[in-house]
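Exercise 7. Predict the structure of Lnb N-terminal periplasmic domain-containing protein from Winogradskyella psychrotolerans RS-3.
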Amino acid sequence: MKLKLLSFIFLFTITSTFAQQFQLSDEAEISVLTIGPGESLNDAFGHNGFRIKDTNLEIDVVYGYGEYDFDAPNFYLKFAQGKLNYLISRHNFDRFFYAYTNANRTIEEQVLNLSREEKQNVFNFLENNYKPENRRYLYDFFYDNCATRIRDVAQTTTKGDLKFISPEHLEPKTFRELIHEQVGLNTWGSFGIDIALGSVIDRQASAKEFMFLPKYIHAFFETTETSTSEPLVKNATVLYQKQGTNAASNILFSPLVVIGLLAILFYL
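Solution. The predicted structure, encoded as tokens:
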């Protein structure tokens, strides 16, 4: 067992070191993946990641800033309060694709319009973040999560400032309204988050702050321009579309019904 562990550590070290020696070819592509919501509360907001694909070097990996320890004590409370430690992950695209299609979650891809130098910058930045000493970060529900990190890394690794242009028909919303878009109004998820975060989420979000949600990373990147006024996204594709389900919400056990029944019993 100890020998296997030492072998794994050695292999991991060699692999990480080797990865940082790669110089991407002209065929390399960097894209942003947007994953649709899942069924559980921690999956309800979707996910984003960077895909690095270079057929010449046989590289096809996905980096994401959404890995966490599901078995951490008081997971859901810490998740709702934004107090979890998160890590950057790196997975082969095939494994990534299988996991999310198996969970029946939509996968959208936006290939970025970057120079070869900018692509290398993104790759180097992500590899550096993936080092064991750099992997962890203190997750913040609104300002530092798996979506905002995609925006910030893109901004950091490209030449000049990206121009984030608000999508057409974007309506002003509070953070609470944005959360309810994902978890609904009369659900235990929204009920728990409302209690955990309190009135602070009634502040109106700025256009840029909408990007704490993965779907708005996709929406804003669609309209973003580079410093030379070219579109940031070269092309966009739906890699997998969620299949319809017959699942229906059970209104009998929703927060309003349960709390209403308890109130009636209390006053009887």
